[in-house]
Specification:
By secondary structure, the protein is of the alpha+beta class. It has two helices and five strands, in the order H-E-E-E-E-E-H. The protein has a five-stranded antiparallel beta sheet with strand order 1-2-3-4-5, with no helix packed on it. A hairpin with a 2-residue loop joins strand 3 and strand 4. It is flat and about 90 Å long. The chain starts with a helix and ends with a helix.
Amino acid sequence: MLYVLLLLLKILGILLLLFIGLVLLVLLTPIQYSFELEKEEQREPKFMVRVTRLFWLFYFKTSYIEKVFDYRIRILGYQIAGNQPEFLEKQKERQKKKSQKEKAKEETKERVFFKENKKQNKKLKRNKG
């Protein structure tokens, strides 16, 4: 009995240390940033800001060049937000696939519903007849 209790405490202690280690890693890892700004006479200003955290696992970049505002946000290398044409096209494709899947699910539900109704109607006709 005492052995089981000590084993549970040991496992909980290891898990607690892992959790504290991850929290410290996130809190103590420095934020890296870079900032560039150009302003020439008779031209629009250009700027770029890039912020990273945890060895590029979290990444944010924004820029304004030639009257075009651009931004992107990545987590674990996967872009979750942005206004680049490629990213927006991928998002539209994902939404189309998702809507097609939902339509297919609805159609299968309707088919199953109509099949069940046909079976029930046949049973009712048999029982009446």
